[in-house]
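Lab meeting, item 3. Inverse folding demo.
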């Protein structure tokens, strides 16, 4: 029994097959076989979401029907708005998790229900924020998914910035068997309904080692006054064996292609300022001294900051994009299901007497 190899954190373990996404041998992230860096340049969020969900790039008619569906379904009922108002929960992720869990399964087609839930994320975020900070007069249903969410987050109707924002949403949309997706797949494998699946995924996403990392990046990055100070801060943390948020990845041991792409867009969006200089110094230091690459959450945080999005929204943005990837995984899991039930090596006592 002691000679068993136990892959902690399932590192290196292939647990199932998927047709949704992967990282190829050159380190490119592929959605349904297409490089994400190509998709993001040529297609909008709605088209990429449909591709991820169905495996096909939609024709203009299918894309437009899907876009209409996202708009019509985005409205949340008065009683749900009232629950959000009464809850007055300051953490938007807690609200997303609680409110999604209220949606009735009602024996509907899985894909229909998943799309309905996903399309409500922007409005749940809006009313959660309103419950704490008061009413803001914002048209919460019109425009594309990215425009709608951007307007809700910043109060601004800004086509150009919404286009930049859309690129980040596409980058965040899907990533194979990451922790939140795996949590959803475990739940789906018991044949629990899609609402349970998305609720599990939202819970797993919240942790700082997964989605919660992006909101912690700005906390340290914006306080530096010099490059020296930035590097000293990182050295001190590393000497205390603390993790640097925005670095490291289970899959990308050399470079995260999403981080590289968003960094290049960030330079177009914001130019090069002192914060960018500190960010690049930390990136070089982490790579040269520790061989730990930067991940999407690091430049993603700076990117959202440059777009005028406040930190409390960072993780909800991640969730609003990833919910489409989760939905694809729910469908894939139940369509060729086997319950996910691993085993553990028992290392506790045996034969104790009462
Ligand atoms: N800061 C300092 N050391 C690190 C970091 C980091 N951010 N990431 C990895 N390491 C070290 C780690 O301590 C370990 O060193 P040693 O072998 O000496 O013990 C080595 O690198 C291997 O790391 P690991 O923790 O075994 O790698 P993992 O695959 O188990 O964990 C991770 C991956 C993302 C949880 C981890 O890198 C981490 O905690 N990063 C910080 C949180 C973060 O930015 N998360 C967002 C990930 S990207 C978005 C997403 O997909 O969620």
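The presenter then showed the designed sequence:
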């Amino acid at each position: 029994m002691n000679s068993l190899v136990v892959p902690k954190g399932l590192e290196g373990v292939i647990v199932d097959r998927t047709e949704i996404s992967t990282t190829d041998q050159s380190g490119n992230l592929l959605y349904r076989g297409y490089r994400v860096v190509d998709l993001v340049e040529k297609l909008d969020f709605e088209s990429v979401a449909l591709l991820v969900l169905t495996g096909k790039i939609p024709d203009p008619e299918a894309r437009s029907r899907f876009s209409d569906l996202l708009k019509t379904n985005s409205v949340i009922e008065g009683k749900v708005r009232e629950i959000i108002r009464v809850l007055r929960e300051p953490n938007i992720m807690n609200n997303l998790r609680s409110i999604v869990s209220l949606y009735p399964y009602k024996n509907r087609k899985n894909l229909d229900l998943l799309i309905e839930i996903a399309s409500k994320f922007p409005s749940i975020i809006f009313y959660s924020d309103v419950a704490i900070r008061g009413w803001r007069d914002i048209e919460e249903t019109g425009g594309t998914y990215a425009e709608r969410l951007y307007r809700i987050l910043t109060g601004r109707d800004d086509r150009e910035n919404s286009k930049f924002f859309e690129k980040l949403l596409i980058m965040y949309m899907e990533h194979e068997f990451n922790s939140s997706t795996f949590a959803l797949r475990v739940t789906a494998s018991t044949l629990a309904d899609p609402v349970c699946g998305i609720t599990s995924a939202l819970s797993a996403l919240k942790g700082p080692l997964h989605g919660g990392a992006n909101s912690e990046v700005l906390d340290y990055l914006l306080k530096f006054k010099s490059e020296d100070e930035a590097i000293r801060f990182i050295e001190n943390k590393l000497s205390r064996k603390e993790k640097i948020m925005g670095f490291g990845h289970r899959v990308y041991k050399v470079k995260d292609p999403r981080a590289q792409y968003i960094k290049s867009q960030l330079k177009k969006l914001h130019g090069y300022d002192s914060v960018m200089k500190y960010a690049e110094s930390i990136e070089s230091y982490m790579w040269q001294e520790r061989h730990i690459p930067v991940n999407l959450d690091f430049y993603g945080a700076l990117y959202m900051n440059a777009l005028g999005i406040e930190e409390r929204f960072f993780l909800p943005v991640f969730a609003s994009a990833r919910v489409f990837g989760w939905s694809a995984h729910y469908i894939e899991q139940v369509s060729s299901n086997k319950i996910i039930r691993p085993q553990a090596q028992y290392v506790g006592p045996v034969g104790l007497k009462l």
